[in-house]
Design goal:
The structure holds 2 protein chains of 2 kinds. By secondary structure, chain A is mostly helical. Chain A has helices at 2-5, 15-18, 29-42, 53-73, 76-86, 101-118, 125-156, 159-186. In chain B, strands 1-2-3 form a 3-stranded antiparallel β-sheet. Classes of the chains: A mainly alpha, B alpha+beta.
């Protein structure tokens, strides 16, 4: 335990370093989860009851960082946004990337149906259900594309890939909101 | 955040809500949206073939109060203008008229984009060259 902490005065600089790996978008999640359990045990504050105050503090800080890191890295969307942010790309910014016209048409129709349903027109449920299915399919397609961009970025580390990723993430968030609205309306 | 009285007025009493026949050759339809806030805005104009003046304008916006007010105001301004005059409407005019705060400026940009998109659709239908993208 003492060996573990020896010389470790500063915490890892990013969430990937916490797990001892370079920045990786296409993560091997089971492996990260395994490391998470190992590190959680290793740095559990209960094991530092007799350690110096500095060591106790380090174990506490590390554990808290570890939990943050695991929470973000386990979720592909949060992980990608984290990497974008560390590269100076604000996730919400979609300038120059307007959504395609067909998607807007769909969004508009869904909103019309949602409004009709709110006004008590039960037959609007049909179109909402159909729209929901289309958005779910769209989300799946986006997730496939996201995985491809993850692998491409890991292999080549190009800023251009991150730009594409940001546009894709924005579109996904848009669709995610629509899926949520539709599901809420139908529940 | 407090909305200005003008925003509230347009929000509570939106002008020209509705839709025009998008297959009509005299009608131009603009559909724009902002993924970050989920807003989607449809704005339509109907141009009088004799005079070239926008006789009618309709909108339907799903979004925040500022987005609704911006598009409502836009339709008011569009009526009675020629297509070229309509192209001169800038988002900053909308910001000033509605006293939009900085965080809501994108709503006015959306409204300007919707105007441009509607005019573009109309021009293309008339066989004219499409507009260059403004943003």
């Amino acid at each position: 335990m003492r060996d573990l902490l020896y010389g470790m005065s500063s915490l890892p600089s990013d969430y990937f370093a916490v797990f001892g790996i370079p920045v990786t978008l296409a993560l091997d999640l089971p492996e990260i989860q395994r490391r998470f359990y190992v590190l959680s045990k290793q740095y559990h504050p209960d094991r530092f009851g007799r350690a110096s105050a500095a060591e106790q503090q380090y174990a506490l800080d590390f554990t808290s960082l570890l939990n943050d890191a695991w929470r973000v890295l386990r979720d592909p969307q949060a992980r990608a946004e984290y990497v974008l942010k560390n590269n100076g790309l604000e996730a919400g910014d979609s300038r120059g990337n307007p959504p395609p016209a067909e998607l807007l048409e769909e969004v508009f129709e869904l909103n019309m149906a949602l409004e009709e349903l709110r006004q008590g027109e039960a037959e609007a449920r049909g179109p909402i259900g159909e729209a929901l299915n289309r958005f779910l399919a769209l989300r799946e397609a986006i997730d496939t594309e996201r995985e491809e961009l993850f692998l491409r970025y890991d292999a080549h580390r190009q800023a251009e890939t991150l730009q594409q990723l940001r546009a894709l993430l924005n579109r996904r968030r848009y669709i995610e909101n629509l899926v949520r609205d539709a599901q809420q309306a139908l529940s | 955040m407090a909305y200005s009285n003008k925003v509230l007025d347009h929000y509570n009493h939106p002008r020209n809500v509705g839709s025009l026949d998008k297959n009509d050759a005299q009608v131009g339809t603009g559909m724009v949206g902002a993924p970050e806030c989920g807003d989607v805005m449809k704005l339509q104009i109907k141009v009088n073939p004799e005079t070239g003046i926008i006789d009618d304008a309709k909108f339907k916006t799903f979004g925040c109060g500022s987005a609704i007010a911006s598009s409502s105001l836009a339709t008011e301004w569009l009526k009675g203008k020629t297509v070229d005059e309509a192209l001169a409407i800038k988002n900053t005019d909308i910001v000033n008229e509605l006293a939009l705060p900085p965080v809501k400026i994108h709503c006015s940009v959306l409204a300007e984009d919707a105007i441009k998109a509607a005019i573009n659709d109309y021009k293309v239908k008339q066989g004219a060259a499409p507009l260059l993208q403004a943003h």
